[in-house]
Amino acid sequence: MFVRGLKRKCFDGEEDIEGTLAGIKAIPSYNLQRQSLLDMSLVKLQLCHMLVEPNLCRSVLIANTVRQIQEEMTQDGTWQMINPQSTGQASLDRLVSTDILCRSSREQAEGKHVPGYSTFNKDFEGDQAQDSSETMSTASSVQAPRNLQGHVWEMENPQENKGNFQKSLDQIFETLENKSPNSVEDLFSEVDNSYYDLDTMLTGMMSNTKMGHCDGLETFSSTTTTASNSNCKSDLNELDHIVEILVES
Amino acid sequence: FSGAGGGNDIQWCFSQVKGAVDDDVAEADIISTVEFNHSGELLATGDKGGRVVIFQQEQENKTQSHSRGEYNVYSTFQSHEPEFDYLKSLEIEEKINKIRWLPQKNAAQFLLSTNDKTIKLWKISERDKRPEGYNLKEEDGRYRDPTTVTTLRVPVFRPMDLMVEASPRRIFANAHTYHINSISINSDYETYLSADDLRINLWHLEITDRSFNIVDIKPANMEELTEVITAAEFHPNSCNTFVYSSSKGTIRLCDMRASALCDRHSKLFEEPEDPSNRSFFSEIISSISDVKFSHSGRYMMTRDYLSVKIWDLNMENRPVETYQVHEYLRSKLCSLYENDCIFDKFECCWNGSDRQVKFFTRTSDLPNIVMTGSYNNFFRMFDRNTKRDITLEASRENNKPRTVLKPRKVCASGKRKKDEISVDSLDFNKKILHTAWHPKENIIAVATTNNLYIFQDKMN
Q: Residues B385-437: pLDDT tens digits?
């Protein structure tokens, strides 16, 4: 049940850090942990789009968690909007990963209360998240020293931090809009706006069983325009929109 | 009735285990629901492969007075098949989400089984006789040459080997856009409700082409969706009353006489949040995974991720009792969120009712126990009278019939005593989500991933 390799990597990561970044303690701060939770939640929402219709309750709960974090970050003032840069590649590798969350609970963030977070090693395997989290941890632990350097900078430049989040958000957003299909997220690029008001269409079909094939398609196409009209002007609107599309799916 | 009278703790013994022995679990064999019928003679399970297996209790053998009848397979049938929704390009799982029995009215048994989208009414009937001696047909069904028929006879029924047949009598389809999580039969035994994430529909058992929508919490703008329905149940005595629980930890009681669409609750049950325990996971762990009325209908029980709560229907602002199922997981919520275990939906159940004894015994003497599952194949029981609780394990080790189960203990922190298990050693893949209690006797059915365990109390 223990994923031994993973544990070793966590420890290795710490050793590397102490070696390369002498004097800088590898402590996951509250902000970092919160960021990590945010990234994890976003990944979870993306992973929702599989063959079987995703669990709506789970999606809603994760989306609410994302909103909570975003609200808190807005209040903190750590949420800052910067111009989205276009990226051709998914920057999952830059996600603050579960690697951070693996850190020993002995190293508490200085001065900052860590509410309800478990900072113990990731000991157990979960069926669903196993592959993804292992991949993530593998990717991140390889870059652990580099990530941490990056994070040190991010702590100094909170804008940079938000930039990563913004990039992740943008990827989801772009893929959903089918503006620039990414190979990585092609999986749910199809999932799309047909969910936007599928319910309306379905209830329409249920009440009028004689509804023709063409009628169905017309309703279908009329709902897609609303989705594509929105654009990412304000961060709150954007997040709401993404969450709505993801939850809808 | 053993156990009546305060202070007699039930001693649980292993009785039987059903299912494959090997650790390699076939996905289709994962048990997804367990339910006793109203007499307790039949025990039904549904699995991820869409099958229903019904076990029947043997008639009690007078010579074997030390144990109750064993449960053996009575009927197996494929209730639901996988479907493909071409419109959404998604599969519709055949997994049986819930089974509910109808009370028996004649020789046949009826149950409702549902997957994510479709509810079916199944008739299970026995055939132990067959007609023989037809005039025009041979025994194998081939038609006889009419010219060979020289005499007439009346066909007679002859005994045959017992055959149990299951046939679908009603199919209630196309009424749910979202995934059905609950079905509940009304006390009028004519209607039932089905609940999905956003809506609850009322059906008549005889009518399949229409249903009434009685609850709809879908927002006009799906962007605003923050709460879903997680479970629903009819009141056991009051045929116009039902409750539904939500992902935000609230329970709403509705009266169908108030209006056609019950979107205004009659009562709202919600416990205020404990600010000292607040975290980003507070909402997720408050999400209610199961709600069950007590037999009297005076109380209801809810299960959220870490606890079981008992509510008095007359008090909306807080539960009357709260029992911690596995509080030691509170510090592990982040990892449990990561591996998705935090979304596991545990069920809960009351002990069987005992209506005959009630008139002669004080209510406080009646056994009053609730049961729910946990991880590592542990399950928990809370005695409301004595306030004692116990943790037991469903495992093939130490499973000798009539040997009392040893209580288990999880060591939350600090030094682990002998026989205790540390939190980090728990196997989170071994979860007990579904348990059921015989309606009349102290027999319980506990489902691990792909095995069904039956325990009974030690008699004599």
A: 999 999 999 999 877 877 899 999 999 877 778 889 999 999 999 999 999 99
- Examine residue B200 and state whether it is found in any structural domain, yes or no: no
Do the domain assignments include residue B173? no
Chain B positions in Cβ-Cβ contact with residue A60 (cut-off 8 Å): 225-228, 247
Q: Which domain holds residue B296?
A: 284-459
**Hey, of A61, A135, A242, which one would you mutate to test binding to chain B, going by the most B CBs within 10 A of its CB?**
A61
CA–CA separation, B23 and B29 (whole Å):
12
- Quick check: A238 contacting B, CB < 8 Å? no
Asked if A110 is an interface residue toward chain B (Cβ–Cβ < 8 A), one would say: no
| B429 located within any domain | yes
The pTM (predicted TM-score) of the whole model is: 0.73
Buried b (16+ CB within 10 A) or exposed e, B328-341: bbbbbbbbbbbbbb
* A contact test, residue of B84, B218, B280 with most A CBs within 10 A: B280
Q: Decide if B247 and A57 are in contact by the 8 Å CB cutoff.
A: yes
Domain count, chain B: 1
Token duo for residue B307:
């606890």
Of A98, A41, A27, which is closest to residue A73 (Cα–Cα)? A41
Q: Is A212 on the interface with B (CB under 8 A)?
A: no
Give the ipTM.
0.91
Exposed/middle/buried for residue B209 (C-beta within 10 Å: 0-12, 13-18, 19+)? exposed
